[in-house]
Design goal:
This protein has 144 residues and is of the alpha+beta class. The protein has two domains: 4-69, Ribosomal protein L11/L12, N-terminal domain (Ribosomal protein L11, N-terminal domain), CATH 3.30.1550; 74-139, Arc Repressor Mutant, subunit A. Helices cover 36% and strands 22% of the residues. The protein has helices spanning 23-28, 34-45, 74-82, 101-111, 120-133; strands at 4-13, 52-60, 65-69, 97-100, 136-139. The strands form two sheets. The chain has a three-stranded antiparallel β-sheet. The radius of gyration is 18 Å and the shape is elongated. The protein starts with a strand and ends in a 5-residue tail after the last strand.
Length: 144
């Protein structure tokens, strides 16, 4: 078993990673092969469209690495579903868009592997909470 030197977490555009910051400095300081990571990440995430993809890179003492791609952040998926450029600056007072409960369920299905919810409905409630904190109104929530 190889000794782990570092675990680096980044959020990169799918299929469009470059050796420029933030990738280069984050991996370079641990001696990992930056170009090899960029090639592998772009190949692995090319099918994800224009999403932002969180990636967790484990760097070992022999300078080799492995990485795990996660699902896009909930805020990105909420903005995409509601058709927004960004969330509200005054989330409690200013509404910038609407989301239906069905859209929350769809986002929760997509995010389920990375969430700590026991079932789909509780995951959808977490997504609805994130949407509300972004100033997005959620309609049709059962038992709300």
């Amino acid at each position: 078993m190889k000794k782990i030197t570092a675990v680096v977490k980044l959020q990169l555009p799918a299929g469009k990673a470059t050796p420029a910051p933030p990738v280069g400095p984050a991996l370079g300081q641990h001696g990992a092969n930056i170009m090899e990571f960029v090639k592998q990440f772009n190949a692995a995430s090319a099918s994800m469209g224009d999403a932002i993809v969180p990636v967790e890179i484990t760097i070992f003492s022999d300078r080799s690495f492995t990485f795990i791609t996660k699902t896009p952040p909930a805020s990105y998926l909420i903005r995409k579903a509601a058709g927004l450029e960004k969330g509200s600056g005054k989330s409690g007072r200013e509404k910038v868009g609407k989301l239906t409960w069905e859209q929350c369920l769809q986002i929760a299905k997509q995010k389920m592997p990375d969430m700590n919810a026991l079932d789909l409905e509780s995951a959808a409630r977490q997504i609805a909470g994130s949407a509300r904190s972004m100033g997005v109104e959620v309609t049709g929530v059962p038992n709300a």
